[in-house]
Amino acid sequence: MSVSTSSSRTLKIGLVGFGPFGQFLAKTMIKQGHILQATSRSDHSQLCHHLGISFFREEREFIEADNDVILICTSILSLSQVLNNLPLHFLKRPTLIAEVLSVKEHPRNVLLQVVPEEMDLLCTHPMFGPESGKNGWQDLTFVYDKVRIRDEATCSSFLHIFQSEGCKMLEMSCEEHDKIAARSQFLTHTIGRTLSEMEIESTSMNTKGFETLVQLKENSVRDSFDLFSGLFIYNRFAKQELQNLELALEKVKQKLLQKMEEQSSIESKP
């Protein structure tokens, strides 16, 4: 879906959480000329200084720093704790609160519970990361849901960050996102983690298909287990997909055993 860019402007963006993904997003935002500020449980003051980002150890000072957008870049598992600890009542003016987590219904529900009603809410999921987006964001998908937007100009300017980099902009409800992500993203991670448990490695006689499996395993374990478990715990559709995978594997197993019995019967005939 096309995003209006007529009101695109320089934004003052505050990042909550400055781990690898927050740093990854920040570099492009800085390149575009936006003004960034950050707060995080870990001390990233030196890195922020190097990047030209103001770093706040005190969350109240960060909240009072007059951001246009506060972008939540924490892990899925820590979201509730982080948001409940943020003194959002010290916000000086209506602010766009956005997030970039890999599930959508859970952060939407937490934001609606915790964030003051006069603040706008935007749920987003950049369908890429530091590895897949290292050579640019062209043609990579960016999903978003305007949960509660009154200041269309600020929202449009924030979305323009991703549109201007060539992202495919996809507006979708949080529920629909989680349904699709359970079958695509969670299933991909699950198979990759399963292959890791099997300790598959490249061989001297790889087929192209096996090389794909090895790459899937390596890509999956690059992400933290916290991310993977968050995809399961906080996406209500993931449990069914895990059951579907187990049932499908059992069906394949039974078909193989049946075929083996049939073949054995054929071979045993005089």
From TrEMBL:
Keyword terms, alphabetized: Coiled coil, Oxidoreductase
InterPro entries xref list: NAD(P)-bd_dom_sf, PDH_N, Prephen_DH, TYRAAT1/2, TYRAAT2_C
Coiled-coil region(s): 235-262
Single GO term (MF): prephenate dehydrogenase (NAD+) activity
One of the GO BP terms on file: tyrosine biosynthetic process
Gene3D superfamilies in alphabetical order: NAD(P)-binding Rossmann-like Domain
Top-rank lineage group of the source organism: Eukaryota
Residue ranges constituting the Prephenate/arogenate dehydrogenase domain according to the UniProt record: 11-270
PANTHER family: AROGENATE DEHYDROGENASE 1, CHLOROPLASTIC-LIKE, AROGENATE DEHYDROGENASE-RELATED
Protein name: Prephenate/arogenate dehydrogenase domain-containing protein
Organism from which the protein derives: Dipteronia sinensis
